[in-house]
Structure formats: C-alpha cells, structure tokens
Task: inverse folding
C-alpha cells in the first residue's frame, strides 16, 4: 500500500496535484477530507487533541472529522463551511493541494474559485439520494472551469448496505448527462467517508468493486497532459533591468509561462503590437537555460531592442492569439452588487490590466436546470451568464477551452476594488490571425 | 515543437511551488508602489529571500527588508538576520516592540510574558511610518486552521484588520492588488507550502540556517507539555526542574513561548527524516496558539502577520 506512512522522506521529484471537492452540507464532504488527512496520517496529534478539546466543550463527545476543515469560528458555530479552505497532504508519490469548497447554490462563487486551479474535481453523491440537481450543478461548474478529470464518489454506501445495484444506478444516471460535459475523464468510486471504505483502505464490504480506492486514483490519474504544451505563451510581468556595469544592456522580460515551450533562437511575436524578434536567452538565477516550458517562471532576453512592457504577451511568431477589443465570455458574478452595464470595470487578463464595459448579457445559465434563460441585462451574485464585452485597448487572448490562463480574466470594481467576476473567454467566430498575416505589425 | 516526449517537460512539486512564489513576488513588485519583505531570519523567511533573489536576478530585489523585533530573541537569530541582509546588500529596517511600548503604541497586559501579540501594533506602526503598501510574509496555510482560508493577496483595511468573511475571491493565478490609500496588502508567496516543502527546498537550495534549528544542548523547563528554553525572560517557579537536553526548535517566535523538541537532528536531511515521522504539527510547539481554538483567527483579525 503506497500510503503507509514512510520513515523515508518523500523523494524530491514528486508531482503536484490540485483538486477541488464539491458537495452539499450533508454529503459528508468535510468528513471525506478529514478521512483522507486522517488515514494518510496527515493529521497530527495536537490537531486531534484540539478537536477532542472542542468536542468536549460542545458536549458532543465524539471527535468530528469535519471539524478539521471548518477553520473559522463562525463555521464551527453554524456547522457549515463558508469559504474556500486549502488543505495539504502528501503521499510518497504526490503532493496534494485540496480546495475545499461549500456546495450551496449561494456559494457558486467559492466553487468557481476553488475549481479555477484544479486538475481534478471530486464530486460527492449521497448514495441514498442519487444524482440530484446539485450534482449536475457541480459537474457543470467543473466542466465550465475546464477541470480535466472528474471523480464521482458515491458516498454513504454503508447506509445502503453497500449494494452494487445502487451504485450502478447512480453511475448510469450520471452518465446520462455526463455526455454533455466537456470533461472526458470521469471515474466512479463507491465509498463511505465515515467508515473509511475505499478512501485509503480498500473496503471489505464491496467485493463487487474492483476499481481503485480514492487515494489510489488521486495518486495515479495521468496529469502530465493537463498542461497546454502546444501554444507558447509568456505574459510579461515585469522588466528586469539591473542597470549595473556588469549587466549594462540586460533587459529580461520576466513571467510565468502560461503555455507551451520556448527555445533559444525561436522567432517570437510580441502581442498586441505584433513586433517580432528572436529569443537570445532564457535566464534564471542558476544560469542560462536552452528550453523553457509551462509553468516555469523565467526571464526572456530578445535579440532586438523593441518596446515591451508589463501586460504584453510573447508568443511564437508561428502561433498567434486572437487580438481584439471585443470578446464574448462566460461571467461568474461574485459581488453583492449586481452587474451594471452602465458602469466600467477593470479587467485583469494575465498581467494585462485594461478597462472594459459589458455591452450585453446574452443569456443567463439557470443553475438548477442548466438551461439558458433571459438575464434582463444583468447578473446577480452567484449567477453565470454569457456576455459581450468591449475593452479600451486590444487584448491578446485564447479561448478558455484552449488555454485556462490566456483564456481567463477577472473583473474588478473601480470604486470598491473588489473582485466582482471571473471571466471565461469563448472561442470567437473568426479565427486568430494567420502567422503570415501582417495586419498587426506596426 | 512539442515532439519531445512528455517526460522532457516534467515538473516536480518543488518546481511548481517555486515558480508560483516567484510569480507572486513579481506581481507585488509590479503592482505596488512601496512593498517590503518581512524577514526575521527564520526558515520560512529565508526561503522567501531566496525566491526574491531568483525573481529579479540579476537585478537586486526591489524592496527593503523589515523585521519586527520582540526583544525576546534567540541571539543566534539576530546575528543570522543581520549577516544575511549584509550578504545580499539589502536594506534592513528593524522596529522593536520595546520602542513601541515606550511610545505607547503597544500596551503589555499584566501577566502576559509572550510578546507575539505586541508585534501587531509595532508592525502596523512600521508600515505606516514607511508608507509600505504591501508586506510580503512567509506564512503558510498549513500552519493553522484559520490560515487555511487566507488569500495569497490578503487585504487589510486602514486599521490593518483582516475580515475573514469578506475576502476577495482569488482565481487562477490572477491577483487583485488594488487598494485605496492607507489600506495595505499582506502577500504570502509560501501559502501553498508545507513544513516538509520548506525543508525540502532548503535542502535543494542548500540554504544556510540559524544554528538553533539543529540539535544543540540547552537548558529547558517543562511547561504546558512542552520544553521551553530557560532564559531571563521566563521566571522559574520554585522547585522547577531545568534539565539540559539535546534539542532544536521547529518554529521560532518569542523565546519565552517557543517550544523546543528533543532531537538529534544535526543536518537538513536529518530534519527531513524527523518531520516525515513527526506526530505533532510545528505550531503545536507554540504556546501562544494553544490558548483557544480561535487564537490565531483573533490575532489575525487584529492585524497579525
């Protein structure tokens, strides 16, 4: 068993997997995470001791695994999770970052937040209730946010006598609408978080199930292809100019690759201006490297002195993005104040900040039925809709479906400075400029 | 262009954490007028310094260092802090709790030995004095439950307070650094690191550390189920035993409440082995967090790091 605590330290080259969990208050989501941490020995004695103390105080007596994750006092008092909480555990093969998000309709904003960086989503279904509206909503959001892997845990199997027909029926029901999701990789596991069946230890009650345990699946799901390594994208964050005698002419365009691969000597274009140059070097503290790939943070040196600043996007000259002031996006509204088309918002796309206005709300997604409906020109907190936006200066972007970084943005309220929406750019009807096309070269 | 086998592009968890932290550092430098990096000489802030070096190399990192000195220190830590800042030719600003008490900015409560709480007003006063709009800190989400919900860019109002119920959502790697005058941002590039990650990074980067992290003989006293260092700041009770043991510290705070653990670990590799087998979290060795379930949440609301 790979998850037995090992006296040996984990090897340095282990992979990182980020996953999100979604479920409603009673699905046992916090119990599931508590169980994962507990059984993978990531809960320490002092944390258990603190739990014991708080359960003694509240008189319950029994240690509640859910209390491990409900960190804020208000949450413990109300017995609910109100915010995204991040949890960490590791096995000898992988380090895991868990974004634990509440499942209420009104917490759509938290689910979207947790899902934005995840490789995998764990969706919990209560075996007694089967696939409900909420399940569909969670799966829809995971698919909308482009999470490549979906893991459906049919929980509380102990309460249905560990029956295979219950599990099979839920799998069939889910598959019915699962075909409409973008997610290709969907796995089903029957579990009992409370009893520990098929979480870390294989269940002794479900001989009919031959698949992996939850932890096995998390350790083995193939994630190397989750990154976009096809489209080279370097959003320029900062220009490094030491201005010392030793590095007199050094101008390093610093950023974290949002996709693809760059090699020294590659011809590149700087968007949105379209100016071209070649990569002279890729610089790190450890010295020059020949090859950079996502998601490395590097500083790129170019052969020509061209004007480049924060917000520009460096791409291969043979693989440009869309460049436009008009774009269509799914907006997930996250603020108490509804979307107001009369106002201007700040749009932050990678490292590029511009102002924008929402010209039109084409439709709203009914989060219960997942159908489209008229939005009356606005979106309220936790609503999702397809909108047409216009920016004050051109953006260089991909569709979200193609690249989860260069296809994403946030909207910020100019007055309150709050983050009011997450935006997922839809593929425009006209194709990006062809490489030979010189319209954008100034 | 991507015909090479996928293994060519492998990326370990340490590379991923490092790249994320460098990205965060650069965002701070680009979006704030007057950032500062909180440097205590402790292991987490030592990692922060290395990441800052990497983010802006070959230029120097574009912010000074700030330390809030409790006056209740391990002397080794201050020596290390000053030496490291000098090596990097970084500007080091030190503001002391002692001065803050003298000026009436910080008010000790009778009977309270630890000065961790008094760091809060001292820090806020220093941020105001230099008009710093962003403070980069080494806090990690795995340290404590209420930290698990803190953002990487954590907004503080004009009173330096954290409001856990109205945090800005943080999506992808896009950070919202916008603030009004007088407000500021705490930024935590190590948010997603665990204690083990920090030690593995120290090993990989061969970072120098204060000697108190390694096993050494020290006179200690047993209080609240942990070994506290005997010092002038900790009045002994009659008949208290003060054995000299082989110990090291896992986390460093005010010396009067920093627990030592018995350990033979003399190298970073020894420590990594020790942590792999550990059964207590590192915060478990801080007496100040033990007082109540919500101890850290309360301190943070007031403006703690």
Result:
């Amino acid at each position: 068993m790979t998850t037995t605590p090992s006296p040996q330290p984990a090897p340095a080259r282990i992979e990182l997997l980020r996953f999100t969990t979604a479920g409603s208050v009673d699905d046992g989501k916090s119990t599931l995470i508590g169980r994962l941490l507990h059984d993978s020995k990531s809960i320490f004695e002092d944390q258990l001791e603190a739990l014991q103390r708080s359960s003694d105080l509240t008189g319950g007596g029994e240690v509640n695994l859910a209390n491990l994750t409900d960190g804020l006092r208000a949450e413990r008092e109300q017995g609910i999770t109100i915010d995204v909480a991040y949890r960490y555990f590791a096995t000898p093969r992988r380090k895991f970052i868990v974004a634990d998000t509440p499942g209420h309709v009104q917490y759509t904003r938290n689910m979207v937040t947790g899902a934005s960086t995840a490789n995998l989503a764990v969706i919990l279904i209560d075996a007694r209730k089967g696939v409900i509206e909420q399940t569909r909503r969670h799966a829809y959001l995971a698919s909308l946010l482009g999470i490549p892997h979906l893991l459906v845990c049919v929980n509380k199997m102990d309460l249905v006598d560990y029956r295979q027909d219950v599990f099979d029926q839920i799998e069939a029901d889910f598959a019915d609408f699962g075909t409409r999701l973008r997610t290709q990789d969907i796995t089903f596991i029957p579990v009992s978080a409370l009893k520990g069946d098929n979480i870390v230890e294989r269940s002794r009650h479900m001989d009919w199930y031959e698949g992996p345990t939850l932890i096995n699946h998390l350790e083995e799901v193939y994630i190397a292809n989750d990154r976009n390594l096809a489209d080279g994208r370097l959003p320029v964050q900062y220009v490094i100019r030491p201005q010392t005698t030793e590095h007199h002419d050094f101008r390093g365009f610093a950023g974290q690759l949002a996709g693809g691969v760059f090699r020294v000597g590659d011809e590149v274009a700087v968007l949105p201006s379209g100016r071209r140059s070649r990569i002279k070097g890729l610089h790190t503290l450890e010295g020059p490297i020949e090859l950079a790939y996502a998601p490395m943070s590097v500083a790129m040196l170019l052969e020509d002195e061209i004007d480049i600043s924060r917000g520009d996007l460096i791409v291969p000259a043979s693989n440009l993005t869309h460049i436009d002031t008009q774009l269509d996006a799914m907006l997930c509204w996250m603020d108490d104040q509804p979307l107001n088309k009369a106002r201007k918002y700040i749009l932050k796309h990678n490292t590029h900040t511009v102002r924008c206005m929402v010209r039109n709300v084409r439709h709203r997604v009914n989060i219960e039925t997942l159908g489209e409906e008229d939005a009356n020109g606005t979106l309220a907190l936790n609503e999702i809709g397809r909108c047409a936006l216009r920016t004050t200066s051109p953006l260089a972007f991909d569709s979200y479906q193609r690249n989860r970084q260069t296809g994403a943005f946030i909207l910020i309220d100019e007055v309150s400075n709050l983050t009011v929406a997450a935006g997922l750019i839809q593929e425009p009807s006209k194709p990006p400029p062809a490489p030979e096309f010189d319209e954008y070269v100034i | 262009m991507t015909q090479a086998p996928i293994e060519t592009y492998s990326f370990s968890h340490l590379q991923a954490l490092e790249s994320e932290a460098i990205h965060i550092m650069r965002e701070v430098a680009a979006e704030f007028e007057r950032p500062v990096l909180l440097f205590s000489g402790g292991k987490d802030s030592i990692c922060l310094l290395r990441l800052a070096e990497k983010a802006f190399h070959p230029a120097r990192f574009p912010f000074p260092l700030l330390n809030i000195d409790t006056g209740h220190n391990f002397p080794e830590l201050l020596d290390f802090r000053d030496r490291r800042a000098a090596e990097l030719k970084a500007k080091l600003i030190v503001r002391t709790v002692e001065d803050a008490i003298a000026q009436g900015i910080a008010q000790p409560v009778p009977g309270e030995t630890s000065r961790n709480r008094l760091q809060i007003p001292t820090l806020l006063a220093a941020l105001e004095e230099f008009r710093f709009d962003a403070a980069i800190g080494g806090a990690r989400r795995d340290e404590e439950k209420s930290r698990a919900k803190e953002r990487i860019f954590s907004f503080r109002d004009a009173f330096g307070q954290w409001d856990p119920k109205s945090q800005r959502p943080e999506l992808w790697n896009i950070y919202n650094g916008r603030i009004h005058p007088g407000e500021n941002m705490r930024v935590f590039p190590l948010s997603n690191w665990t204690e083990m990650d920090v030690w593995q990074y120290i090993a990989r980067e061969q970072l120098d550390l204060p000697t108190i992290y390694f096993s050494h003989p020290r006179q200690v006293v047993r209080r609240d189920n942990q070994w506290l260092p005997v010092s002038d700041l900790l009045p002994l009770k009659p008949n208290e035993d003060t054995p000299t043991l082989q110990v090291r510290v896992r986390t460093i705070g005010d010396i009067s409440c920093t627990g030592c653990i018995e350990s033979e670990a003399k190298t970073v590799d020894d420590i990594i082995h020790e942590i792999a087998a550990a059964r207590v979290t590192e915060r478990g060795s801080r007496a100040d967090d033990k007082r109540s379930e919500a101890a850290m949440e309360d301190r943070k609301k007031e403006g703690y790091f």
Notes: Chain A touches chain B through 91 residues (CB under 8 Å).
